[in-house]
Design brief:
The structure is a homodimer of 467-residue chains. By secondary structure, chain A is an alpha+beta fold. The first copy, chain A, is built from 15 helices and 18 strands. Chain A has two domains: 288 residues, 3-Layer(aba) Sandwich (Aminopeptidase), CATH 3.40.630.10; 124 residues, 2-Layer Sandwich (Alpha-Beta Plaits).
């Protein structure tokens, strides 16, 4: 069977798809902040209803003790591969709210862009995936492959209960491969296939220098100040060029191979424009291109840091406590726990005598992932992108982290193809996040072709170890 | 005339005085935060009413464009000195509110202490001053000296409009000397006379590294992070011992003389206990005792620092902006503007190429003040403290800053005796601020004797330059 009638159907349904995406975006599904618990629950109810309406079976919440995932299946293609289709319904917090031109949960069209929190990351591409399955069932009454839709609710918080979900529902989630709606395109003009992603781990740090906040007139010049001490610790993480200054943390990083260098160089990438477009200041590890650093080298970023008086006016205090939230992007070869431990050891060694350092979160997350170049997922994606773009797709890696790929590989031996349609300029995790509206039509064409293409491989071909 | 009947009257009135102090403390007069504008206005109305009721004349608000001061006078002693009695009605913000055992604006007695924001700094001592004048007028129908009560409303914000108030009301404020209810006792057992204070200046710093917040997966390892850059700047302000690492800022600091060293050493002071009592970590400039550092050497403290995501959970961003509020305690010899400029120059030099640094507040404040040892104010205080304690008072300097003393010296050529009764352990500027209740009775005895003593000097004797 050809996927063309399905593609045609989706073309005709574009406005209705767009409306459903907007309804999805109106739901404030911020997973990290308990204040949004109702928005999370509403979004799950919305998805359950949606998956049932398009004809999926066994629709249910998969609860691992955190934010449940939403699941639905169509398993009517015996002998064909079984594909988990992954997306996530949770989004980043919208703050700072004052910087949004239009409210984050009121999707708004401006200049061919759909502005809303989660539009790019990743409700847009998740909607493309759901609508593709819906169209196959509506037009042909069947899908070319068996489908298990898995829409996660904790991607933005590092998937804390995903291990437990997969443990509890391992039988339900058995499959031959996964396609992820997360992990987008690297370029608007060159077709790319994501063959890997950096990993992520984290650490939250509390520095204490006294039992209470002190008056700077009465103690200034005689005691340590928690902000000075935190600053000294943070300043010690990188050298003046911006490279990580913790040798133990770099030990296990895999050296770049020839193929890595060649693939990275194959993507048209204007380093100067990349930095200038966001008004940034280029910095980082010498000896690597920016794309190499972004995808194949680790990075430490302090995501938040605070202490003392931050209100209006001034307050002459010596703060007794200061905090920093730190995340580390992991390169291939690095183990999240080992890296977090190396960072912790460095911080403890950097703290001056007497300074109390406590770690509120440490470790977790996931290692970097890599998909072999001759994997059926890559072959199928190559065919689809050749057909839709007329160009040879370039292999790229993501700098961002999708913990799901590592967890599903580890626990269910599934490889993942990232096939999202978001683009790098869409201000994810920042105010005024948007989704390029033409990406919806592109995705709705490519996804049906991909499912059709995957049907040509026997289920056993999808396991890298077994080939 | 003897002050003894006045002292006796105040002893009998102790409970009524205590009630009036409590009413004063219930008014939330936080000057730095516009949210407390009504509390400030209510406090001014309360003071105007109080000063009128005790029999002061010409009671009025002195408005310099900021928080007005409250003024009232009794000028019925021709030929006697005219003394400005200074206090302030504004208090520090009460946050962090969660750490208060009882609400900051509900004065509460526990263990001989009166807990409330402003109890120590400085509504307690301001009340002693007002009640002393009230008692003279009630008992004798007159005061031994001419009195001009001046209750400021901006002490906790560095007195931004005090210059303008003194400029506008210079004629009204003409006097021979000032006694300040601010600037307390250095020890509960040894009588002390404050003969000076450190100055204060400040700077608020904004570091920018990009046009917007960036996703750490997409940019991590390729660009500067505002928090890393702010940390590097803050870490450069001090050396590892905690001494200021900015030579240009130390240039004008007056070297310690023999008298300075001797006076400082004369006060019983347990350096280890001083730091241990607040769970602190001793640090600072080598070659000086802690008290020398606290009173005769400058100190830089970052009072607040923040940037990026500070909410619950994690957010994988590279912050584009970070901020720090910095204040500098000034030693004798230092000029506030020159010091702020030296700090600014250092920060600009420390910022890495491309990092944008903006200063939102810079300079202002006041230099350190010093009162000569043979000044009539010191002689009068010496007599009073000898009489009330039976001990020889020790000369001390304050580490904290009272801008009023510098401004009145500069603009009206008035010297100031600090004669507050607060003690160093009273958690000023911090949660659970309190005032030792026995200090009220001590103050109500010493203040009448002091006014009586000052009446013995001719007005011309109070000008240091003219003696």
């Amino acid at each position: 069977m050809s996927a063309e009638p399905v593609v045609q159907h989706l073309r005709e349904q574009h406005d209705a798809v767009f409306e459903r995406l907007n309804a999805f975006l109106r739901l404030p599904s911020v997973s990290t902040d308990p204040a949004y618990a109702q928005g999370m629950a509403d979004t799950r109810a919305f998805l359950v209803d949606w998956l049932k309406r398009i004809g999926l079976n066994d629709v249910q919440l998969l609860d691992g003790g955190g934010q449940p995932a939403v699941y639905g299946a169509w398993l009517g293609a015996p002998g064909a591969p079984t594909i988990i289709v992954y997306g996530h319904y949770d989004v980043q917090p919208p703050d700072p709210l004052a910087l949004w031109k239009t409210p984050p949960f009121e999707p708004t069209v401006r200049d061919g862009r759909l502005y809303a929190r989660g539009a790019s990351d990743v409700k847009g591409s998740t909607t493309i995936a759901i609508e593709t399955v819906a169209a196959f069932l509506a037009v042909q009454g069947r899908c070319p492959v068996n489908i298990k839709l898995f829409i996660e609710g904790e991607e933005e918080t590092g998937s804390p209960s995903l291990h437990e979900i997969v443990r509890r529902y391992g039988d339900l989630l058995k499959a031959d491969a996964m396609i992820s709606a997360d992990g987008g395109r690297a370029s608007p003009t060159v077709p790319t296939i994501n063959v890997g992603a950096r990993g992520l781990t984290k650490l939250e740090l509390v520095v204490r220098t006294a039992a209470k906040e002190l008056h700077s007139g009465r103690y200034g010049g005689s005691v340590r100040n928690a902000l000075h001490e935190l600053a000294a610790i943070v300043a010690s993480l990188h050298d003046s060029e911006g490279a990580i200054a913790i040798p133990a943390l770099m030990d296990a990083v895999a050296p770049l191979g020839e193929r890595d260098r060649r693939d990275t160089a194959a993507l048209p990438f204007d380093e100067v424009a990349f930095v200038a477009d966001v008004g940034g200041i280029a910095a980082g590890e010498p000896g690597f291109t920016i794309r190499e650093r972004l995808t194949l080298r680790p990075a430490i970023d302090v995501n938040g840091m605070w202490g003392g008086y931050t209100g209006a006016g001034s307050k002459t205090v010596i703060p007794d406590e200061a905090r920093a939230k730190i995340t580390i992007r992991l390169a291939p070869g690095q183990d999240p726990e080992q890296v977090a431990q190396a960072l912790k050891d460095h911080i403890l060694a950097a703290a001056r005598p007497g300074v109390a350092v406590r770690f509120e979160t440490i470790g977790g997350g996931s290692p970097a992932s890599t998909l072999a170049a001759d994997h059926p997922l890559v072959q199928a994606a190559t065919s689809v992108l050749q057909a839709t773009s007329g160009q040879e797709p370039v292999h790229v890696r993501l700098g961002a982290t999708v913990p799901i790929t590592a967890i599903f590989k580890e626990m269910l031996d599934l490889d993942t193809l990232m096939f999202g349609f978001n683009l790098p300029d869409e201000d994810v995790h920042a105010p005024n996040e948007f989704f390029h509206i033409p990406s919806i039509a592109l995705g709705l064409r490519a996804w049906p072709l991909l499912l059709q293409e995957l049907a040509q491989f026997p289920p056993s071909a999808f396991r890298q170890d077994g080939r």
